[in-house]
Amino acid sequence: xxxxxxxxITGASGAIYGVRLVQQLLTESYKVHLILTEAAxxxxxxxxxxxxxxxxxxxxxLFGKYGGELHTHHLHDYGAPIASGSYQNDGMIIIxxxxxxxxxIAHGASGNLLERTADVMLKEGRKLVLVPRETPLNQLxxxxxxxxxxxxxxxLPAMPGFYHLPKTMDDLVNFLVGKALDSLGVxxxxxxxxxxxx
Length: 198
Description:
Layout: E1 4-9, H1 15-27, E2 31-36, H2 38-47, H3 55-63, E3 69-73, E4 91-97, H4 99-106, H5 113-123, E5 128-132, H6 139-150, E6 154-155, H7 169-184
């Protein structure tokens, strides 16, 4: 096993980003702790056109063939190992990150396992990457981003680049997921970097 990462997927638009990132981590033999909010399941249904009646089946279909080691956690499972600072965790990313989850983290609410684990990452000085997906942004959103940034989180907005000349939706998704993996320190070949041969 190469390392351990926690991934949160919330109800912000852009569920495919989180799905693709988990698939990539598993492909590269990482151990992944996955937390899905209730709203994330709704977005799976609306954006990915998945039947979410059998959630275990959805997880198997999305991630079962990628190797690695996947552990899914209920949003209110405070007994999960990732809820403790004593558990070794190489980094955490919430992709996409809703404004509600951002607010909970910014104010130290720890109202669920996702917020608690993010709080653990901050207090232990470990990598925490938040990928907000909202537009337009109001002052509260911006202030919450600044607040978490000041205490060590990295804000990586879901803004795809175009210098790699994307031709498909997959190209756009892979660019953003690649930038997220860069922030976690995970090697990948999801897009052509500036200055590399196309």
